[in-house]
Design brief:
158 residues, alpha+beta, Glycoprotein, Type 4 Pilin
Length: 158
């Protein structure tokens, strides 16, 4: 009578465990980076209403440099302090700032460092975008926003 063997050998089980270990060693760091990039999108999205406000101000006021700052006097539809506070109300966002950088609008988003290392980002992961200004029909206008290669973008979150 022939005895039929059922099951796996020890070497087959060890090979499967080794393959799973290799896959896990590759997948876990990639997953960690992926989740950081996904969470950083909340920080990047905080600038959207501010960019729209600055662009609208440029269109309504013939590219007035006063549009590059907060609460500009003498221009229509500028970015207000309340807009900056509203943009900074997201969980991972600490502050949102609008500044005039040599005649170019610059928006800086500083992450909320109190969220902890697992949930949040460090202050060094700041997100900065600058407007690219071009003259169209004799009026300066913002044609693009350029992410600066510092902070979170330097970490690969952008």
């Amino acid at each position: 009578m022939v005895k039929v063997q059922k099951g796996f050998t020890l070497i087959e089980l060890m090979i499967v465990i080794a393959i799973i270990g290799i896959l896990a060693a590759v997948a876990v760091p990639q997953y960690s980076q992926y989740t950081k990039r996904a969470k950083y999108s909340e920080i990047k999205m905080a600038v959207s209403p501010i960019k729209s406000g600055v662009e609208g101000c440029y269109q309504r006021n013939a590219g007035n440099v006063l549009c590059n700052g907060t609460d500009p006097a003498g221009v229509q539809s500028g970015v207000t302090s309340k807009m900056l506070l509203r943009a900074a109300s997201a969980k991972l966002v600490g502050t949102v700032e609008l500044a005039n950088d040599s005649g170019v609008p610059m928006i800086t988003v500083i992450p909320d460092a109190t969220q902890g290392p697992i949930e949040g980002f460090a202050v060094a992961d700041t997100y900065i975008v600058k407007g690219e200004i071009a003259t169209i029909v004799n009026e300066p206008t913002i044609v693009d926003w350029i992410e600066q290669p510092t902070g979170g973008c330097a970490e690969g979150y952008c």
